[in-house]
Amino acid sequence: PYGEFAFNKQIITNSYSFFGREQNTSLKVQGPNSILEEEFQGADATIKIADYVLFPTMEDLLREVVPFVQFQKKGSKQNIRMSYRYERSVKIYGDDPLYIIDGFMSRDTPFFLSIKPEILLAIKIINNPNKLGLLGKLGENGIIFVESKKGNLFSTAGNNLFPIAGLSKAVNFYAIDYLKPNKNERVPDLRANLYWTPALIVGKTGSTDITCFASDDTGPIIIRVEGLTKEGIPFQAEKTIDVKYNSTR
């Protein structure tokens, strides 16, 4: 928690008094977004609100000051989109970037637009695709950091629930059917994993049959089964079998 982090920083600051008053005892006070900003490899652009004319609304501030952030309005719906400029092209991200508001993550665009610029210290953005790509779904539409003067906007922030589909796309299990013609049949098959299924259902008989081809790597292989009973109790079982060379194939 941020409160614990600030407390520990104060302990470190106080410990400098051991060396006397001539010692530089000042440590830079970190804002509520600092930890996440550092974790995400730093901001690509920083806007200090005090350096500009005070705008009455967030919409005005975005249009006039904040780079690579576009406000759009389609009927009653308000959208925020970020972009990144290459030498000869521009990358446009999807709607609703990730907002980090005083340490609070959200995709609530209406709440972000309702914030008054007069209560803010700074707005920072991350729009570099190389940084965002490492964050998967979190960074797919860019990131906007918002830091207020009091650092407590998170207490009034909107819904911070948003779906995370996963960092990697699902892939099909690679299997070979040797009953079908295969132009690479003479290439050795040395797969380490021969069969995998996440949804094998055993019927009322309590048993089921599965079939797979062994690889050309002879020797012991492990069959591992994990699952749930009808009562929801997890179980696991393993058995080792030997794969031998078939000289009559």
Protein architecture, described:
The protein has 249 residues and is α+β, with helices and mostly antiparallel strands. It has five helices and ten strands; from the N terminus they run ααβαβββββαβαβββ. The strands form three sheets. A five-stranded mixed beta sheet has the order 1-7-8-5-6, with no helix packed on it. Strands 2-3-4 form a three-stranded antiparallel beta sheet. The chain has a two-stranded antiparallel ribbon with strand order 9-10. It is elongated, with a radius of gyration of 28 Å. It starts with a helix and ends in a 6-residue tail after the last strand.
Question: What is the topology?
Answer:
Elements lengths: L1 H14 L18 H6 L5 E4 L9 H7 L4 E6 L2 E9 L4 E6 L2 E4 L2 E3 L2 H6 L5 E7 L2 H4 L10 E6 L70 E10 L5 E10 L6
Parallel strand pairs: 5-8
Antiparallel strand pairs: 1-7, 2-3, 3-4, 5-6, 7-8, 9-10
- The backbone outline, from C-alpha atoms, is elongated
Proportion of strand residues:
25-35%
Per DSSP E runs of 2 or more residues, the count of β-strands stands at 10
Stretches where pLDDT is under 50 for at least 5 consecutive residues are 1-9, 16-27
Q: Could you tell me the radius of gyration in angstroms?
A: 28 Å
Oligomeric form:
single chain
> Could you describe the largest sheet, including whether it forms a barrel?
5 strands, mixed
Order of helices and strands: HHEHEEEEEHEHEEE
Helix/strand-derived category reads: alpha+beta
Compute the average pLDDT.
82
Distance between the termini: 64 Å
Q: In order across it, which strands form the biggest sheet?
A: 1-7-8-5-6
Specify the number of helices.
5
Helix proportion: 10-25%
